[in-house]
Structure prediction request, 454 residues.
Amino acid sequence: MEHDRISQVAGHAALTLDADVAITGSDPVLATPWPVGEVAAVALAAAGAAASRLASRAGGDPGPVHVDVGDAAAATIGFAVMRVDGESMARTNAENPWVGRHRCGDGRWIHLHGGFPPLVDRLASLLELPADADEATIGGAVARWESSPLEDAIAARRGCSAIIRSEDEWRRHPQGALVDSWPIVVQRASGVVAGTRWSPSPTRPLAGLRVLDLTRVLAGPTCGRTLAAFGAEVLHVRGPNVPNVPAFVVDTGHGKHQAHADLTDPDQLTMLRSVALAADVVVQGYRPGVVGRYGLDEASLRADGFAGVFGSVSAFGHDGPWSDRAGWEQLAQSTSGLCLDPLGDDKPAMLPCAFTDYTTGFVTAAGIMNALDSALSDGIAKRVDGSLCQTAAWMLRVGPSAEGGTPTGFVPRLQRSETGFGVVEHLGPCVAVDGLDIGWARPTTPLGEGTLGW
Prediction:
């Protein structure tokens, strides 16, 4: 990428790349008109630049940040290029009839996402269908609804769906207009004096930083994995009965300790809150009411003395009428306008990658590092919010590639790790900074294998 193009893409996200950044290659890498590789490369470069800034604060002398567009494009489909004992992992929802696009009675397309059994049950109950209904039967039931009432009814039942909108339509939507007014990540001062036992390192900038990762599925775990690559001690905690996507667990577990905590058990909840209060960073990826119910929201933790960075990753944004809606990668693409020609007769085309998930993880990690740096300057603890729809808004501002062209594809540069899952061949961090040690100090491990504590 040429320097002007890097600056243009970064500027559309209000990202400051104050380090020397060298991004090689250009799109199209994947079969999509959207410049997925270039935008993801700038997101990874932003994380590298933030880490470089912290290393410089510690007396280090880091050199240029390096990212390859092909590697960045590969990173947006990391779980799919990964191999475990020589085999790819099955895509959990590839044959799930409850995940897909259907025509409503008013001619609009809606994307249903019953990615986990509870979500299937909510959709099935609303549509008055059995949970084992096939795709054609589901489509017939959807066709009896108009799109907006169906979307709202699914949300009221805590289900997952999104009408497939055009870019202009989303920008006129109350949630879309709000998200479009934000930068790629939102950083806010908490009003609390920052307090931490941590200070950056000149060569592994986040060494010793305690990060409590309370996220799931893909974007939030990617954020934690990115922080671990720069040296953070990341403890990923989730409930023992919370559904998961096995390929995502393997792919995003590098560098982390894994523990379970049953939040319905008062003793385990007390232990988890103690762990949170001793952390330098807490990142959560659940709806606001979920973490608040257990005293793990920012306000509750601040009231009990938490003085670090509080990060939040969501689908539709941290504020606004849709802030408490659950979502997935495909729903962010669908509602925001990334599906080109959403009003045509054919099913709208999805991006051939999990762009908003992975890229949100990269830029939220960069935002957290910037918040750490800011707190070291002004002494005020910060909150950082990223979302899939903020990342989608960034791509929309950049716009489709005008040149088109034949996709070049990529050859994934896989590392080999002995893990609790077997021999895993996987992508590395996909960003390098001269003079910094970037990589994971421990292999990916199964959920719940570790202990709940630092």
In short: The chain has 17 helices and 16 strands. The chain has a mean pLDDT of 94. Residues 355-378 form the longest helix (24 residues). The first strand starts at residue 21 and ends at 24.
